[in-house]
Structures are given as structure tokens and as C-alpha cells.
Amino acid sequence: MEEAWEKIEDPSNPPPPVEPDFERVMAVAQKYGIEMLPPA
Asked: How far apart are the C-alpha atoms of 23 and 33, rounded to whole Å?
């Protein structure tokens, strides 16, 4: 699911944290047949 996340060019100097793009993550999960359930 590498395509669901932004690549970090230099792991020793990561960018500031940002909120995940859950729509993008869910779309990629569906593409690979992964069902993601909401928190219980």
C-alpha cells in the first residue's frame, strides 16, 4: 500500500506531521481487496 502515503526523500529529516488522507488510503485499500473497518 505504498501508494497510499507520501514518500519521504530523506528519512533523517522527515517533513512535519500532517493528517492522513483517509479517502486516498481507503481507495488504495479497496484496490487491493482490504476492508478497513471503523473503530469499535
From this structure: 15
17 HSE (CA, 13 A, CB side): 1
pLDDT tens profile 6-38 = 888 898 998 888 898 889 989 999 999 999 888
CA distance 13 to 36: 30
- Can you tell me which residue has the cell 482490504? 34
The CA distances from residue 27 to 5, 9, 16, 37, in Å, are: 12, 24, 24, 13
Q: Whole-prediction pTM value?
A: 0.62
